[in-house]
Amino acid sequence: MKQQIADRISKNLENFFKEKGISPEINPTRPPDPSKGDYTLNLAMPLGKVLKKPPLLIAETIAEILAEDKKTFESVEAVKPGFINMRLANSFLEDQFDSFVSSPSLLEASKSETPKRVIVDYSSVNIAKQMHVGHLRSTIIGDVIARIIESLGDKVIAQNHLGDWGVPMAMVIRKAESAIDKAIAENQNPEDVLDTPMLEAFYKEATAECKSDPVEAAACHDYLIRLQNQEQKLIDYWQIIKKVSMRDVYKIYKLLGVRLEPENERGESFYADMLPEIVEKIQQKGLIEISDGAKCVFLDEFKAKDGTPLPVIIQKSDGGYNYATFDLTALHYRTNTLKADRIIYVTDARQALHFKQVFAVARKAGLVPEKVMLEHVTFGSILGEDNKPLKTRDGENVKLAELLDEAIKAAYQVVDDKNNTLPEEYKQQVAKMTGIGAVKYADMAQNRNNDYVFSFERMLALSGNTAPYLQYAHARICSIFRKTDFIPSDAKVIISAPEEKELILKAMEFPLTVKTVSEDLKPHTLCAYLYDLSTLFSSFYTNCRILDCENENQKHSRLALSRAIQRIIKKGLGLLGIEAPEEM
């Protein structure tokens, strides 16, 4: 919206500045009340230094020129010491709004002129482990970032970096081997016999045994070597275990409305054969030093508190590889094979140092060109009511499937209390939309870098900045159109009340808001916008008669405005991966 105003002003001032040999940047600043279409330009004071004239005199000259454009400005006034106060004309806002709502996507104004290839790495589950509450933030924040960037025209390639290789995998294979063999011997499909809770129990059992029994630890290490050497029997076990794990993961993705698919999977195993080549490339750059038998990179910018250098271990003393090597290999693959222009990692803040080091080594070793953007999207923890990380009573991480099931049950009670006349099947659907939406929105409405306290009561409230509040606002607008046959597709919005003007101005901020989130990768900005928009619609709905207007043109105008707001709320919730029910 501000850019549209600046473009309009620039056109009017073109001849004035051309005569003076100046090509200014005109940016609205210090808006006294943008909700009424008021803006202030701080233009005359910087020009005063160039033109060597009093800023107020320059401001008066510019104001006089602008005031001639009655279609754009209702009023223009020069004020001391050299500001220009402007109020946009209703006719200008009506034209701009008409242009805005004619866009099928509502986002044409912010779409990328030169689309990029963007990799978004998120969720990153571990094979043979149930998804728990700790996976929630990476999964839904990454999905929203991918949706938003894609909505503006960039090509998004989602990557789910699976922990499916290494010692933990070898431990699970060793423990699951007898169960798989037994199922095959009894003509059963091992994938039907195993489930993720069973695999997770195998992992916990193996971990405990390896800690207390050196013989068992050595046996698991032997399984790792055999797996890495592609022994077919172990590869077969590994594939079965991976399928069982991901089967349960995709059930949760579907419930969450997350758009990760098997083709997005990139396990550590995928990069296994590429690791020696990456180590060699780093070696050729002269970056590797041997420390206690391990191949390391030491960079000056990374030091411990005592000033000693912090290593990035590229290859362990026993010849094995660690997380840094896999991530460096993934970066090289993503820039050279997938041709990424921008790579975004969504993980918790505890991995901040790891990614700073990996990004720095990747640049230094020439694995990633300077032109490729590397970004790490961090986030805080989910806390319980005691302000400690959310856990079960026995200290275990809360299983994500159980938490989402509880959310749907709690939402059903809210929906039933609000409108128990809804058909039972639809009530169940709305409960799912509301419960899952509430969990996702409560997370994304926070600044992602902050911790937040998980509370079903707060997130399911029908008032305040919650998903149910926005979903109810959408449903209320839909209820208006169930009472009329009028389709406002061709109706033009005409401003006749302050609430309409304020709502229109806020509505036209939508493309810029989405653009901002695509750049700073903070979804709470979109949440705050949708909440403000819904609140303004509530004020408009309360103070402006819609269906019972005496003036037919006004009725059509307000229906058209209502339809536009309904579209924005639905589109905005969709970008957040949240469904918008038509009735609640």
Beta content: 5-15%
Q: N-to-C terminal Cα separation, in Å?
A: 33 Å
Given this structure, which CATH class of the largest domain is correct?
A: Mainly Alpha
Query: Which superfamily, in CATH terms, is the homologous superfamily of the largest domain?
Result: Isoleucyl-tRNA Synthetase, Domain 1
Count of distinct strands: 13
For this structure, the CATH topology of the largest domain is Isoleucyl-tRNA Synthetase, Domain 1
Shape: globular
Q: How many separate domains?
A: 4
Largest beta-sheet details: 4 strands, antiparallel
Helix content: 40-55%
Counting DSSP H or I runs of 4 or more residues, the number of helices is 22
> Which radius of gyration do the C-alpha atoms yield?
29 Å
Can you list the strand order of the major beta sheet?
A: 1-2-4-3
CATH architecture title of the largest domain: Orthogonal Bundle
Poorly predicted regions are 1-14, 19-31
Broad structural category? alpha/beta
What does the average pLDDT come to? 90
Characteristic terms for this protein:
11% strand; disordered N terminus; Gyrase A, domain 2; 584 residues; 13 strands; 4-stranded antiparallel β-sheet
